[in-house]
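Worked example 3. Consider a protein that binds guanosine-5'-monophosphate.
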Amino acid sequence: LQLERELRKALERDEFILHYQPQVNVVTGQITGMEALIRWQHPVRGLLSPIHFIPLAEETGLIVPIGEWVLRKACQDGCRWSKLGRLPMRIAVNLSLIQFQEETLVQNIQSILDETGLEPRFLELEITESIAMHNVEQVVAKLEQLVKLGVQISIDDFGTGFSSLSYLKKFPIHKLKIDRSFITDITSDPDDASIVSAIIAMANSLKLNLIVEGVETEDQQFYLHRLGCFEMQGYLFSRPLPVSLLDQLLEQW
Ligand code: G
Ligand code: G
Ligand code: MN
Ligand code: NA
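Given these inputs, the predicted complex is written out as structure tokens:
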């Protein structure tokens, strides 16, 4: 397959880039974090979204070296932003299940933190509920090792998985990211509003941090604020942007 061959070469040729999307605390107005989102600057096809190559990277195992590149680059950028005297800002990185299961994940992250100098508490790892469908003891052990490094763990796309909620009391996690599918119609669909309210109540009683994704309108922002959600991410605040544009955005924020 042509695309697979090119994907294998893309790392050597330095064709990947990271965009970042700000996460905002709507009470203080501050940017509290950035989610790193990979893109492939393909020599012919132009800028490719991860939906066009992450599944192939997962099938071929290339997600492991690609994911390591993402972690290193995100930690470097995070360290640079913290040295520019910015407010403390977390950098969130998406982890595929295959990366999570990799034997050397914890060591690799430790090395990347040492090498880049990023304080561990500023690195957030986004995993999905799909990990809960695997061997619970192994997953708990791995998560505990990661937490011991000092990094934060969040559950991405929360509410869309097929796992039971029992993992929430077994796994050492810090944060839920409510999936954007519940936000799209939240101001008009009472079912979405009920689901989001219930997740907020659950996060509060389990003492988990919470962020909503996919906030696109002020109506959604105000509605979510009233429901008790204070950290948000979405096009309303900013699209994912390359570093140079983010530097400008941070200047003006
Ligand atoms: O940024 P965008 O909406 O195009 O991302 C599409 C999907 O690709 C999202 O589900 C996102 O989580 C995933 N994605 C983006 N960057 C990474 C990455 O570095 N690693 C993994 N595993 N997934 C990513
Ligand atoms: O699966 P994950 O949550 O990591 O995916 C994040 C994806 O959501 C990114 O690809 C990003 O481009 C996209 N995204 C971020 N904000 C919004 C938004 O407000 N609306 C929509 N439709 N997509 C968004
Ligand atoms: Mn994510
Ligand atoms: Na998500």
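Take a moment to read the result before moving on. The radius of gyration is 18 Å. Residues 21, 37, 94, 156-157, 180, 213-216, 234-235, 240 surround guanosine-5'-monophosphate (ligand 2) (CB under 6 Å).
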